[in-house]
Design a protein that fits this description.
Length: 218
């Protein structure tokens, strides 16, 4: 059995991220992957890491690049019959995301452009995030960074470190219900999506924590 990953709280994890900037790989850039179930706090942790690095080293040293930029477009999901389970592992361009991570790790382009996800229109937006060569830490976060199926399974071998966000299920679901209501669903529909669609994804994601370098309690 693989060793159990060390567990850290958020403050200790942020300190750990600062060491990645101070002692980067030979390319001069660390790429940190943060995985976890929907609502576990991945994006919040990623933002906190980038903010801490910016405070310590100035702007332009760390950038956040979400996996959600590789959501398939809504028209594509409709054509594939997957609209009712958006967020499932087969509703992302996995190969495209892995290819971007390879480019970010190589750090040999003047600027690497990454997509973002716009919650206002519920769509990915290409070419939204600039990652200049001088960036020393890229924080990329998403549900499936530790999944065992190809091509996702390649990611731990590419990333400098992988972290897994873990939080109480009740807290996680409450966060999701609030998010879905802000996106326009009523309470009943928001809770149904959080427990059924997001819940199915979480059941796939949670067992992948043992592949992480660290588990962060959020």
């Amino acid at each position: 059995m693989p060793p159990t990953p060390a567990a850290l709280d958020v403050a200790a994890a942020v300190e750990r991220a600062l060491t990645l900037v101070a002692d980067p790989p030979p390319t001069g850039r660390a790429v940190l992957g943060i995985a976890g179930s929907p609502g576990s706090g991945k994006s919040t942790l990623a933002r906190r890491v980038v903010a801490a690095v910016t405070e310590a080293h100035g702007p332009g040293v760390a950038v956040q690049v979400p996996m959600d930029g590789f959501h398939l477009a809504n028209t594509a999901l409709a054509a594939l019959g997957r609209s009712d389970r958006k967020g499932a592992i087969d509703t992302f361009d996995a190969a495209g995301y892995v290819a971007l991570v390879r480019r970010l790790v190589a750090a040999d382009e003047d600027v690497t452009w990454a997509p973002d996800f716009d919650r206002r229109v519920d769509e990915p937006v290409a070419g939204s995030i600039a990652v200049p060569r001088a960036v020393r830490l890229v924080v990329t976060e998403g549900n499936y960074l530790l999944d065992r199926d190809e091509p996702w399974a390649l990611l731990p071998g590419l990333l400098t470190e992988t972290w897994f966000c873990r939080t109480d299920d009740a807290v996680r679901i409450d966060r999701l219900v609030g998010r879905h209501m802000r996106d326009g669903r009523d309470h009943a529909a928001a809770r149904a999506w959080a427990t059924e669609v997001d819940g199915a994804n979480a059941r796939r994601i949670e067992p992948t924590a043992d592949r992480a370098d660290l588990v962060v309690t959020t």
